[in-house]
Amino acid sequence: MKTSKNYFSGFCFYEESELFDEYIIRNDFTISGFSYGAIKAFEEALNIQNRVDKLQLFSPAFFQNFDEKFKRTQLMYFKKDANSYVQTFLDNVIYPSNKDISKYFKLGTIEELEELLTYVWDEEKLQKLVDRGTIVEVYLGADDKIIDSLKVKEFFQKFATIYYIKEKGHLL
Fold it and tell me: Would the pTM count as exceeding 0.85?
């Protein structure tokens, strides 16, 4: 596969793929992404002309089960004080661990936050990818404080192999 990128980073993250070394498959025919990057990885796998054998989604950003008020509030808090918002966000991302993720930090933008909050995972697109022969894997932490991992599991289970990992959060 002649794509420049096989891994897509999460919101406020940069080159963090090593955090997923115990799960990630690194080859020319696998695309993976973490959280916001899972959206980007999915779109890449869907739209690329080259062969994609496997799509790995680590804690995919999934907010279609949250109401508009929640999404507007998140955006409002980010606009009001991005640094404070991001600190709380990152504390929730690493929960229940105390990993130092500072070397992977890159301040996200309001546009990225809005995109991840409003993105709608489309069942028809997922089925199209599966019908093409792409194996989809979704990795979820049972103790995730960012997304509702049970809702995500329920949504993806007809399209993907789900790895539901106990005592892990958004970072797995």
Answer: yes
